[in-house]
Design brief:
It is built from one helix and seven strands, in the order αβββββββ. With 98 residues, it is an alpha+beta fold.
Length: 98
């Protein structure tokens, strides 16, 4: 009986771990006109603005959203802020316009 109870408790804890699995979004931010990567652009989840990522030297970013259907926001000085929704299961290309 004790063994059955411990198995049930273990399964409940394991199920809880999987339910909080974070969604990871990867991609690149580029200039829409030139196609050049934008270094230092900010990409964040609209629902959780404190959780963001800054693009690297190649314009790439990796962001752990913590939610399954995030709304991404990208901003860069001198460019129009862009909001994206949709499926982010594959790498995202964000084209920023001045």
């Amino acid at each position: 009986m004790k063994r059955a109870v411990s198995v049930v408790i273990s399964l409940i804890i394991l199920a809880g771990c999987f339910s909080v699995a974070a969604e990871v979004v990867t991609g690149v931010v580029i200039d829409a006109m030139s196609g050049e990567p934008l270094v230092g652009a900010m990409v964040y989840v609209r629902q959780k603005p404190a959780d963001g990522a800054m693009t690297g030297l190649d314009g790439s970013f990796r962001l752990t959203t913590g939610i399954t259907a995030p709304e991404l926001v990208c901003s860069y000085l001198g460019y129009t802020r862009k909001t994206l929704t949709g499926d982010f299961s594959s790498p995202v290309e964000i084209r920023m316009e001045e």
